[in-house]
Amino acid sequence: MPAKTPSAGRSRPDQSVTPKDASDESNLALPHERDQSSDMTDAQPDPQIQQAARDLKRNLQDTDKSAAMDRTYQKLKSPRR
Questions:
Q1: Is-contact 40 34, C-beta < 8 A?
Q2: Can you tell me the distance from the alpha carbon of 78 to that of 81, in angstroms, rounded to the nearest whole number?
Q3: Which of 33, 52, 68, 69 sits 20 to 30 Å CA-CA off 40?
Q4: Dihedral sign for Cα atoms in the order 14, 15, 17, 23
Q5: What is the pLDDT at residue 50?
Q6: Contacts of 17 (CB under 8 A, 6+ apart)
């Protein structure tokens, strides 16, 4: 079988066009790297997160409705009798 070679057709949208573009692309952070970098977060902590931390320290009960919603969803999802 002959070796396959790529055709010189249209350029792909995600393909770099010039060497300058290629160097720019190599310097970009991947999404997970961007999310984890400290310069992508605010300098000040979120007030809601601070309140949640204080509530946890005080052993306050979580008042969200996720447990009740999960039970209701499972009840509705199960086949009717």
A1: yes
A2: 9
A3: 52
A4: positive
A5: 92
A6: 11
| 47: Cα within 13 Å, side-chain hemisphere | 0
Both structure tokens of 14: 């995600």
Higher pLDDT: 63 or 9? It is: 63
Whether 17 contacts 11, CB under 8 Å: yes
SS3 of residue 66 by DSSP: helix
Identify the sign of the CA torsion 66, 71, 74, 75: negative
- What's the maximum distance between 2 C-alpha atoms anywhere in the chain? 72
Alpha helices in the chain (DSSP H): 19-27, 31-36, 47-57, 66-77
| Pair 46, 37: CB distance under 8 Å | no
